[in-house]
Amino acid sequence: MISKEVVKEVVLSAIGGGAIFMVDASVDASGRIRVEADTPEGITIDECAALSKAIEAQLDRYGGEFELEVSSPGLTSPLKVAEQYRKNCGRTVEVMKENGQKISGKLKFVNDEGIVLEITVKTKTEGSKRLQTEHKDQPLSFKEIKSTRVAINFN
């Protein structure tokens, strides 16, 4: 059976230096290989098909039976790699921190260490009866993040 490490190497080789990036790859006990890929603009069916052919051609060298599925990550799937975070800059995301705290805000910035969210905080100022809305930047390192999902808004 082909290992996950081999699949990842093959996928990265098939992608080359193009716009497509690998989100995830998995191999189950029955030999089913699943690859999730994307682009900054969103991967097309034709790009998935071409990537699938390129991966399959390379995997055939390793012999054995396998079933290959290449797709984009689902709309409700958590973000897994920095490229997905970059793709979703400017969108509202929901972050579950490792400590169980949930934070929602606009994804403002991404680098290799983490992200910055613009969050809305309501505070009461002295002498005012109403709560004031304030926008603050909330930096989070990837080590602090358990999962992040893009908030789906139907408005």
Give the secondary structure arrangement, pairings included:
Elements: H1 4-15, E1 21-27, E2 32-38, H2 45-59, E3 67-71, H3 82-87, E4 92-97, E5 102-110, E6 114-124, E7 131-141, E8 145-150
Parallel strand pairs: 2-3
Antiparallel strand pairs: 1-2, 4-5, 4-8, 5-6, 6-7
Helix pairs in contact: 1-2
Outline the structure in words:
The chain has 155 residues and is α+β, with helices and mostly antiparallel strands. It has 2 domains: 4-71, GMP Synthetase, Chain A, domain 3 (2-Layer Sandwich); 82-150, SH3 type barrels (Roll). Helices cover 21% and strands 40% of the residues. The protein has 3 helices and 8 strands, in the order H-E-E-H-E-H-E-E-E-E-E. The strands form 2 sheets. It has a 5-stranded antiparallel β-sheet with strand order 7-6-5-4-8. It has a 3-stranded mixed β-sheet with strand order 1-2-3, covered by helices on one side. Strand 6 (114-124) and strand 7 (131-141) form a beta hairpin. The relative contact order is 0.15. The mean pLDDT is 93.
Q: What integer value in Å does the Rg equal?
A: 20 Å
Query: In terms of structural class, how would the helical and strand content be classed?
Result: alpha+beta
Compressed to H and E, one letter per element, the order equals HEEHEHEEEEE
Low-confidence stretches: none
CATH topology of the largest domain: SH3 type barrels
Name given to the CATH architecture of the largest domain: Roll
Distance between the termini: 47 Å
Strand order of the largest sheet: 7-6-5-4-8
What value does the average pLDDT take? 93
Could you say how many structural domains there are in total? 2
> What does the largest sheet look like?
5 strands, antiparallel
CATH class group of the largest domain: Mainly Beta
Strand content: 35-45%
- Report the total helices: 3
